[in-house]
Specification:
heterodimer; A: 330 residues; alpha/beta; eight-stranded mixed β-sheet; four-stranded antiparallel β-sheet; 12 strands; 36% helix; 22% strand; globular; B: mainly alpha; MetI-like fold; two-stranded antiparallel ribbon; Dipeptide transport system permease protein DppB (chain B); MetI-like_sf (chain B); MetI-like (chain B)
């Protein structure tokens, strides 16, 4: 049985004059202890995917249809009281910016103890012992003293470690990390990722890593979803996707990596911008930016097909692959 | 901490100097003290002689320094009407006013927090909309009108509550007369307190609501939800504490302002406090008393603001009073 099974999840935003679709029939699975990366540009729907799994979409967003099964239980549309017992307990989340995630007027100890006490009958002293233990696991020096400190007394990297420790407090089955290092110094980013990887593997915790950084995804995850304009356009083993991307968008992303460009040359970027949710093009949402687009792409939306060991939503994947092969043989 | 206190003390002294200068300038320009002293049947020669003796012909600055020297020793002149030191007259009236302000503060603090939090949590509920509508009405109606309406309804029509005076006060600590020790005292202070609170309460409800709604949008509230914390704890621990920080700052200033607002309330309810006294002093052109009142109210303002800043430093962990002195 898989840990998480998402089927045809559709999330909409009820705006003043129209309802826009932010997630369009997303489906994916996550096994126990498996690590999954979700990549895409800003606005692709990565974060919304994370928040809808926690049922934490803020208004006007709502889950329109689809199913989310977590440990065999349907949790889409679960009443808030029941969902609350899952959040932070069996499913934890790590937010993007540690500078604004912790409450500035509560001590680290208060914020850790309340999390434990929200889900377990524990005395304060016992809860503090668990908190100290978890802080030690994320290599926080002198954890006993940290409990009495306020967030502003700690650095960003330290705070994100504490947030990781908080996510692990109740030994969850799944951690959703939404760009956990974007707001941190480059020098600390690698440390935090390494720590997260280490803790997830040693505790057999499933991880959904939301990021725009393909490098991070290739180091951290076993499988990857590539999202564009609210849809999954390519899914498969991370290695396959990085080494042999099928969708023109994924290819564009990988070609845009600095490593793919010779020194002194301009970075290869994908022309244009991600469309707004209110103006998603008909047919394939990527067609205006796609170098291979044909008439067919502008009128009909591509279905997901299996191709070369990945799932890809592109009409022209066949032709594309052949052209690339011809290029290489030439 | 000590450095901060010293810094605040210097600020307070600067403010008091400014207030005293304004107060003195008023005294110097408002009416002729000689007319109050000797009437009209005295020759111009005697007047000039008296002026010299009283030092009224000295330069403005010399006179101000003399006034300041006396003020520091607690002498703010003698009331023309009461023939008593102005400070003594005010100190006698002070307890009545402070009790009135205290009563209003109790109402404001007790009601604004629950109402503000409620309207922030359920902004679309009918009751929240009624509260917000009523708060606009409350802010718009002047204090004296609210006071008169309440007297008409509760004292004249239903005769539930008395309409004027302090009623039976109980003498405590050898100096203070209090309304809060007898039922009659409570019944007398109720209407004036409500009237005085009628402007500030809606203001605070709206302030708390606006701050709270902003805090509820913050990342740390969203994170608390993601940790599975109960909504009650999110509202009253996570959000409220952050909401109240800016409210405390505004609140301190408003307590000072309320002392000034007592002029209207005390006049309508014939409340024997400093506000009522001030209006009478203005009618009688009792300049020393007017000036003394301004200085005392200024002093109360400075003291409450300093105390509020200190409390803010204690409540907000990101403010380090020890470091702020540097």
């Amino acid at each position: 049985m898989s840990l998480l099974s998402v089927r045809d999840l559709t999330v909409k935003f009820a705006m003043r004059d129209q309802t826009v679709t932010a997630l369009d029939q997303i489906s994916f699975d996550l096994g126990k202890g498996e690590r999954l990366g979700i990549v895409g540009e800003s606005g692709a729907g990565k974060s919304i995917t994370g928040f809808s799994l926690m049922n934490l979409l803020s208004r006007p967003g709502f889950i329109d249809s689809g199913s989310i099964q977590f440990e065999g239980e349907e949790i889409a549309g679960l009443p808030d009281r029941k969902m609350r017992s899952i959040r932070g307990n069996r499913m934890a989340m790590i937010f993007q910016d540690p500078m604004v995630t912790l409450n500035p007027v509560l001590t680290i100890g208060q914020q850790m103890v309340e999390t434990l006490q929200a889900h377990r009958r524990l005395s304060r002293a016992d809860a503090e012992q668990i908190a100290i233990m978890k802080l030690r696991e994320v290599y926080i020096p002198s954890p006993e003293e940290r409990l009495a400190q306020y967030p502003h007394e700690l650095s960003g990297g330290m705070r994100q470690r504490i947030i990781i420790a908080m996510a692990l407090l109740l030994e969850p089955q799944l951690i959703i990390a939404d760009e956990p290092t974007t707001a941190l110094d480059v020098t600390i980013q690698a440390d935090i990722m390494e720590l997260l990887l280490e803790l997830c593997t040693s505790n057999m915790v499933g991880l959904i890593l939301i990021t725009h950084d393909l490098g991070v995804v290739s180091q951290m995850t076993e499988r990857t979803l590539v999202m564009y304009a609210g849809r999954i356009i390519e899914a498969g083993k991370t290695r396959e996707i990085i080494n042999d991307p099928q969708h023109p968008y994924t290819q564009g992303l990988i070609n845009a990596l600095p490593q793919q460009t010779l020194p002194g040359h301009r970075l290869k970027q994908i022309p244009g911008n991600m469309p707004g949710l209110a103006a998603i093009p008909t047919g394939c949402a990527f067609n205006p930016r796609c170098p291979y687009a044909v008439d067919h792409c502008r009128s009909t939306r591509p279905e997901t097909v299996s191709y070369a060991s990945v799932e890809v939503a592109c009409h022209e994947v066949n032709r594309l692959h052949n052209t690339v092969l011809e290029d290489e043989s030439a | 901490m000590l450095a901060y206190l010293v810094k605040r003390l210097f600020q307070a002294i600067a403010v008091m100097l400014a207030i005293s200068l304004i107060g003195f300038a008023i005294q110097d320009n408002l009416g002729d003290p000689l007319r109050e002293l000797v009437g009209q049947s005295v020759s111009e020669e005697t007047r000039q002689q008296l002026r010299d003796e009283l030092g009224l012909n000295d330069s403005f600055f010399t006179q101000y320094l003399r006034f300041l020297g006396n003020a520091v020793q607690g002498d703010l002149g003698t009331s023309y009407f009461f023939k008593e030191p102005a400070v003594d007259v005010i100190l006698k009236k002070l307890p009545a006013t402070l009790e009135l302000v205290f009563g209003a503060t109790l109402i404001i603090v007790g009601l604004s927090v629950p109402l503000g939090v409620y309207t922030a949590i359920k902004p679309n509920h009918v009751l929240a909309k009624v509260i917000m509508g009523a708060s606009i009405v409350g802010i718009s109606i002047p204090v004296f009108l609210t006071a008169i309406l309440m007297i008409y309804v509760f004292s004249v029509e239903y005769q539930w509550l008395p309409s004027y005076g302090r009623g039976d006060v109980v003498h405590v600590f050898g100096y203070w007369d209090t309304n809060f020790a007898s039922l009659d005292g409570w019944s007398h202070i109720l209407l004036p307190s409500i009237a005085l609170a009628s402007i500030m309460l809606p203001l605070f409800v709206r302030l708390i609501r606006a701050e709270m709604m902003e805090v509820l949008q913050s990342e740390y509230v969203k994170y608390a939800k993601a940790k599975g914390i109960h909504p009650f704890r999110i509202y009253f621990v996570h959000a409220l504490k952050n909401t109240l920080l800016p409210v405390i700052t505004v609140g301190g200033v408003q307590i000072g302002t309320m002392v000034a607002y007592t002029i209207l309330t005390e006049t309508v309810f014939q409340w024997p406090g400093m506000g009522f006294m001030f209006l009478e002093a203005v009618n009688r052109v009792d300049t020393p008393l007017i000036v003394a009142y301004l200085i005392v109210v200024g002093f109360i303002f400075v003291v409450t603001n300093t105390i509020v800043d200190l409390i803010y430093g204690l409540v907000n962990p990101t403010v380090n009073l020890a470091r702020m002195g540097a």
